[in-house]
């Protein structure tokens, strides 16, 4: 596999792990240096995906990296907190609103 292909394959694994609630896989990929806040062409990040799907464990892990932008918006103008708030995922919403996140 070419280096460029390997990089994109790893990023795809990271996105899929966020979507499928695979916390351990995300931890391994973060240790390998995968950037936690990359956005796809629709400006959706792994945090956005995990939050939208209600995956609190993955959301917590990504928030703990302190390298994710909790205010990043997709091309539709929605931030990662939008769908958890709309779907009443209170624990996820509270994770975004913790005082230590206020400076982000």
Automatic annotation (TrEMBL):
<keyword id="KW-0040">ANK repeat</keyword>
<dbReference type="InterPro" id="IPR002110">
    <property type="entry name" value="Ankyrin_rpt"/>
</dbReference>
<dbReference type="InterPro" id="IPR036770">
    <property type="entry name" value="Ankyrin_rpt-contain_sf"/>
</dbReference>
<feature type="repeat" description="ANK">
    <location>
        <begin position="42"/>
        <end position="64"/>
    </location>
</feature>
<dbReference type="Pfam" id="PF12796">
    <property type="entry name" value="Ank_2"/>
</dbReference>
<keyword id="KW-0677">Repeat</keyword>
<protein>
    <submittedName>
        <fullName>Uncharacterized protein</fullName>
    </submittedName>
</protein>
């Amino acid at each position: 596999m070419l280096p460029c292909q390997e990089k994109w394959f790893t990023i795809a694994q990271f996105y899929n792990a966020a979507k499928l609630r695979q916390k351990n896989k995300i931890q391994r990929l973060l240790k390998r240096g995968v950037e936690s806040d990359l956005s796809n062409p629709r400006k959706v990040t792994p945090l956005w995906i995990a939050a939208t799907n209600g995956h609190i464990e993955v959301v917590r892990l990504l928030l703990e990296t302190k390298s994710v932008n909790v205010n990043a918006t997709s091309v539709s103008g929605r931030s990662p907190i939008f769908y958890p708030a709309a779907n009443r995922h209170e624990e996820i919403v509270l994770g975004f609103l913790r005082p230590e996140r206020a400076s982000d």
